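Entry:
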Amino acid sequence: MDHDHLETVSFRLIRRVFYFLILLVLLAAAGLTWWTGREIASPTRRPLQDYHLEFLADPAAHGVVVEKYTLKDGTPCLMCVPESSGKLGVRGVTVRKQLEERGLLLAPAGKVIGTLVLVHGRKGRKEDYLLIAERLCAAGFRCLLADMPAHGDHPAGLAYYGVREADLPARLLSESAEKFHFDPQPVGLLGISMGGSVAMHATGQPQAPWKALCIISSFDAFDAVVDFQASRLAGSFFGGLWAAGAGWVYEAQTGQSIHAIQPHEYAARLQIPTLIAHGTKDHVVPMASGKRLFEALPETIGKKWVEIPEADHDNVLITDFPIYATVAEWMLIHVK
């Protein structure tokens, strides 16, 4: 075999390997894009954690009573109410002390003065909010928690980030009030991350019952958040392609465009006092997105912007910043 023939064979082999590698890259990119879009539409469900089970096994140690129930559409729920004896858990003692230091006159521990509906974030579940409810119950609120569609034990398999779940918080309130025989007013709404988008959409419903709103680590437009995350990982060009492809997969899965998730449009029409808090080091939802949501709120409603120093998306509730006292104070002032 002559030298030229060997070179030809080698070139063909290299070319085939090159094409094969390109094919593998394209297949990997397509698979990653499909997986991302599917994860947006139907996130991996978070299982119950040990601390959830510990809390549910002895809620009295946390100063609350927990009721488990299901809405008419199959939505799994929890209701947390303060222990009527006035017993408090460690977190409840802390938040009441912080509120008293701010000059608030609190109702006696164990007394219910209103209701809060709490909406969890993407990949979360209602039990994640038990420790939040412990603190807010100590401040005097009954807390209602539900698994959002495609999360926890909810039977639905797709998430719409508030566009189609907008009526769920109000239904949670009305069905719970009927089942447990309490006055649904006054009531406030709290949402974190995806839950903030759901909460913002919920406030735009006709005859919405909410007296006040708190949103933590949420966004003004979901498509911009997806593009931000993809670009951060893959650069602006490839990240843009990745985000666009994931959006197409999401729309194919849900029948809803990712561009339809625009909480800022509801913010502009809001008519209730609203607090928006965001971590300054959030790498999932950039603080600028939360600030744009805040700036979309009307100036006339009474609004407050809170920056949580050095907080990322996943630890925004567990820094030294007294976020629970800040939220409780806002609700105590406006939910009456």
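The first strand starts at residue 64 and ends at 70.
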